[in-house]
Amino acid sequence: MQGRQALFALLRNEVFETELNQQIKNFISSDNLYTLYQLSKKHDLAHLVADALDKNGLLPKDNPISQKFLQQRVMAVYRYEQSNYELQEISRIFEEEKIENIPLKGSVLRAYYPQPWMRTSCDIDILVRQDEVKRAVKLLTEKYGYTYSIHTQHDYSLFSAGGVHIELHFILIFHDESGDDFTKRVWESAVAEDGFGYRKKLSNELFYGYHIAHIAQHILQGGCGVKPFIDLKIMQEKMSIDRFCAQETLERCHLTTFAQRCEELAEVWFDGGEKSAALTEFENYVLLGGVYGTLENKAQIGKSAKKGKFRYLLSRIFLPYRSLALMYPSLKKCPVLFPFYQVRRWFRLFHKNGVKVSDAVKELKTVSEVSEESGERAAALLRDLGLKQ
């Protein structure tokens, strides 16, 4: 538990510029550095912890773990420069080609951090209109040297010549009960960024709503790590958000309760708020899952959300019509081909996208091994978070 306390104390010191108390300083010894390094790296936060330790004189010289920490800081600066260059390059291309686009996630949030390199990201996320996304992919791959990777029901994955991962989203996943598309509302309210005609930006309220929706998506898939909660606290403190408008967005997406729990957890970690038993369960789920979540978390949540192993397995094998139509728009013109497109998706997953049969078998085995107790705890967590699949 002390390792967790030290991690959050260092994050508060680094990002929110709070004082580091003597108890935490005493805990950070050579013996504890390795544990702290492993925990922070699991959540892609080792660069922030490294900078906080260094500024407070807590990195012993000639210590191999100290060197690992400092390397993470150097890599974070490098990653920022590389991704920032790539974002500007894509913005230039889309401006020239007259393709409307909206940068998402870290590329927007880093402007609110004390230093932009502090907000690292594994990829660049950009929203493109659904009727333009194939043209955008074709231009980037055929004219500008990007490499196509995979295509899901909500985005296309590419790599730049420099190895930067680009995700071109064409839909933002969450829809309200009446069928009013959240992505449509994003485009309707987007305004051009200064100096651009085709690069747009979201309103702060929709950006906040999308951020909450994105956390929810990852929680349902096994975990999201600590970073989105730092982002959430940054947004609360530094972005002017109309709470009434934001609340309306959350209600339309059925995420009001989940947003409240996320804000409560962020308050516990970065403001010393009170922690209930249910919130402790949420905390453990996030911390144990790391940035990418775990297969065990995913199996527990998935099995509970689908009310049983069999239904969960069916949901993994057979996509619903709407999700499949997002992946293959031509299905809308001929719904009778629904079974054909299911088979086509399986073929693409295992052949074109390189999904291994062994990975699928491992997931099925993990689902089968979820105990009744674990399933009940996952179900209770979902209920408390107000989430369902």
Brief summary:
With 389 residues, this protein is of the alpha+beta class. The protein contains 19 helices and seven strands.
Name a few traits of the molecule.
389 residues, five-stranded mixed beta sheet, 60% helix, alpha+beta
Q: Proportion of β residues?
A: 5-15%
How many individual β-strands? Answer: 7
- 3D shape: globular
Largest sheet: 5 strands, mixed
Radius of gyration: 22 Å
Share of residues in helices: 55-70%
Strand order of the largest sheet: 1-2-5-4-3
Mean pLDDT: 85
Terminal CA distance reads 32 Å
SSE string, helix = H, strand = E?
A: HHHHHEHEHEEEHEEHHHHHHHHHHH
Low-confidence stretches: none
Class from secondary-structure proportions: alpha+beta
The helix count comes to 19
Structural features, described:
This protein has 389 residues and is an alpha+beta fold. It has 19 helices and 7 strands. Helix 1 crosses helix 3 (30-42), helix 1 crosses helix 4 (46-55) and helix 9 (204-220) runs parallel beside helix 11 (243-252). The mean pLDDT is 85.
Q: How are the secondary structure elements laid out?
A:
Elements: H1 2-15, H2 22-27, H3 30-42, H4 46-55, H5 64-96, E1 101-103, H6 106-109, E2 123-128, H7 133-142, E3 147-151, E4 155-159, E5 165-169, H8 182-189, E6 191-192, E7 200-201, H9 204-220, H10 227-238, H11 243-252, H12 256-271, H13 277-289, H14 295-305, H15 309-317, H16 321-327, H17 338-352, H18 357-368, H19 372-385
Parallel strand pairs: 2-5
Antiparallel strand pairs: 1-2, 3-4, 4-5, 6-7
Helix pairs in contact: 1-3, 1-4, 3-5, 4-5, 9-11, 10-12, 14-15, 14-19
